[in-house]
Amino acid sequence: MPENRDIKTESPTKTKIRKVASTLFSQYGYKGTSVRKIAAEVGIRESALYNHFKNKEEIFLDIAQEIFSSPFHFSHDEIQELALRGKPFLQKFTMHYKMLTFDKSSESMFRLLMIELMQNQELREQFMSQFHDANIKVLSEGFFVMMQNNLIRSSDPMMIAYEFISTLFYIRLQVTVLKFDTKPVNHLTTQFEKHVDFFWESIKV
Amino acid sequence: MPENRDIKTESPTKTKIRKVASTLFSQYGYKGTSVRKIAAEVGIRESALYNHFKNKEEIFLDIAQEIFSSPFHFSHDEIQELALRGKPFLQKFTMHYKMLTFDKSSESMFRLLMIELMQNQELREQFMSQFHDANIKVLSEGFFVMMQNNLIRSSDPMMIAYEFISTLFYIRLQVTVLKFDTKPVNHLTTQFEKHVDFFWESIKV
DNA sequence: GTCTATATTTGGATAGAC
DNA sequence: GTCTATCCAAATATAGAC
Fold this sequence. Notes:
The structure is a homodimer. By secondary structure, the first copy, chain A, is mostly helical. Chain A has helices spanning about 10-30, 35-40, 45-50, 55-65, 75-85, 85-100, 105-115, 120-150, 155-180, 185-190, 190-205. Chain A has two domains: about 5-60, Homeodomain-like (Arc Repressor Mutant, subunit A); about 70-205, Tetracycline Repressor, domain 2, CATH 1.10.357. Chain A is about 70% helix and about 0% strand. The interface of A and B includes residues 121 and 163 of A.
């Protein structure tokens, strides 16, 4: 737990290492980033770097834990309340997802996740539990409430949740891929809203 | 163009190099696979390997071109005919997609694509054009026909195509991730069909 | 076409002075 | 905490004999 990462007590150098390494890892991946390059960009020698971190892997793990630090905070009560209103529930969830997609920091962490997804079993498992299961849980709870209240057609809530989240993920991946090459993503900015509209029309009674 | 890759005239060693390298690259990625290891697994020295390929990158590119060698073959006429029947069009397209998802060779090429997606601009661009645009084109053509014939509710065909393909992609990614750790994917085998059913109910008039 | 030998570079990591 | 110096391993690639 990062209680020890007290921004006040931590040395500025360590903070800078984290920042530099984060940028490099999220661009070139673990193997593509050398300790040499991190040190050079920080402005110190490699040996000095080892005063702050045990080794390269420790730096990576320190950064990697940030990938899943922005979970979806929807309380049970919040879900119940929003779901009773139907579409606003989907809108709120989607706006949160969209925000993460375009947030600089979340964006680079998502890129890192995609880069290392097939190289790191731990990340794959966290991807499944944090990116998939967690979202499915929140969404299916909402859809369940909507069904109970006859707002949407009756079906399997988890299946509907799966259908809903998959498009959000796909948009996010596309945005990430395009932005990596600094290509325009204007055409995708409204895609999230379009998805909600289309989906709501599909399921409402 | 691989006219020169005549299976008859090509040396068995070169064929074996391709096979071994393909397996390694699709497991460990470009950086994670060394020429040493390829040579060792083939059963020759590294130096001998350079008699068949100019360098490591040439081996990779040779293999990488296979990633996009299984495009969707839907002729204009075929689309027209199937789309006139509505749901069968979606079923046919989806079954093709499902087949690729579970085909051993396509599976490992898809994994390679995911591994290198964020490391290789060329692959990103091909991903966009071959995996995304090509699918959107076929699907939106089909949806357009369905709208003209009043089989589905009127809307933007490309937007509907986007919605449809995103779920297929998401299922494929999940299958790939799970299989990488030899985890069960039974629960996902019927997901494709469920998606078609749900989607058709969503758009049919 | 394959081998041995070797050149060269890059990368992770440590020892010890300041 | 940072530096210089150094070590060691791994990786790409080439030369030249067989």
